[in-house]
Amino acid sequence: MMTLPISPAASALIARGLKLGGPASRMFAVLNPANGAHIADVADRSADDMHAAVARAGAAFPAWSARTAKERGAILRRWHGLVVDHADALAEVLTLEQGKPLAEARGEILFGANFIEWFAEEAKRVYGDIIPPHAPDKRCLVLKQPIGVVGAITPWNFPSGMMTRKVAPALAAGCTIVVKPAEDTPLSALALAVLAEDAGLPRNVMSVVTAAQASEVAGVLTASPDVRKLSFTGSTRVGKLLMRQCADTVKKLSLELGGNAPFIVFDDADLDAAVAGAMATKFRNAGQTCVSANRLYVQSGVMDAFARKYAEAVRALKIGDGFASGTQIGPLINAAAVEKVDGLVRDAIGKGALAVLGGGRHPHGGNFYQPTILTGVLPGMEIAGAEIFGPVAPITPFETEAEVIARANDTPYGLAAYFWSRDIGRVFRVAEALEYGMVGANEVLTSNEGAPFGGIKESGIGREGSRYGIEDFVEIKYLALGGIAAAA
Fold first, then answer.
1. Residue 72 contacts residue 123 (beta carbons within 8 Å)
2. Which one is catalytic: 92, 256, 387, 401?
3. What are the positions of the active site (predicted)?
4. How do residues 358-408 score in pLDDT, each as one tens digit?
């Protein structure tokens, strides 16, 4: 590994993480998306390696699941403490391999740590039930038991936050887990695994299996009858493929898939607050989030005022390397991502849309793309229905509440939606009418450890975080107890 522009603490986490799992016959390179620099060579594990990791997780399951919830929670609390203590170093690792600004990366680390803390406490609250019996000599009990070995496939856009959001409830419930991180960002997962080991997590209760080609090792997770649950965050296309592959073993699934979030501004909105919200949800992580505002609808009466304020705010954004002071937007993850975003913009402009701001690759070159505002976007344009995953904001006017609800719901996706209004009646009407798993009314920072995260329609199955999040990692067992005869 070459000398890196990061602290000794961050370098040490990377070095220790690279040793996890032992030597490998194949390696793949991890590159810095801001400048293309080589960061490290990571083990490129095979299907055989994944089979071995699943077998080890299966062997570790009986002892781990037999521990009390309090014992498991204590280890999770120690892990949480170590993640918080190493937040600066973990943020450096994250910025190095993913590109987001350092302050934003640190926010992700602490966001992810919150899930570890939450589920450390929630482990003791997996309650069963006693059902009133149907006969005097019987008792009916409902038990909740850990599902078994879990497979988790995590994304590159939030490699730390999405890992802890999956791993923490699995461990709290008593499951063992094998994690396949995205090939662009494996170092964050390995660093978290190092700290989990330091916290006292027994060997093989959690394993991280890195690989350059996800399909080879992910296929083991979907096909193995020993893996009883799969949790995936990523595209809808891949989620559907995994769902099909899991059908043969009838696995329990959690799928957090693509989004096409509408952001609606009504004419009675607080425009300054709406602009701030649109900035936060559109340009966080350079627009590379599944809950990013994808379609901005603004009521015609305030369209000009909103567009002017929004353009001023976007124009002031500072683009650059995530380690540079004051950077607000970093690079896209790789060249393919830039090509996709640029293709959507070129298609829209070619069909009549207007680039009010930006509209092409950034002068920095490489994986940087200009923050862009488009107007005149029509249904026939690719960008109107695609998940953009980049710093591009299409703004479209609308006239009535009924019209914009119909347009917002006209998508197979149903992850997140946002709207801005000070009319309390409208708040309830619109929130109930929008076909999304999460709705923000005058708010865009909706995700936290105590709230259920997930979508409907083709945006996924299941929920992560909150008291609902641990339910996906347990099985319900009904115990019918007979022979309780009346005393003589």
1. yes
2. 256
3. 256
4. 999 999 999 999 999 999 999 889 999 999 999 999 999 999 999 999 999
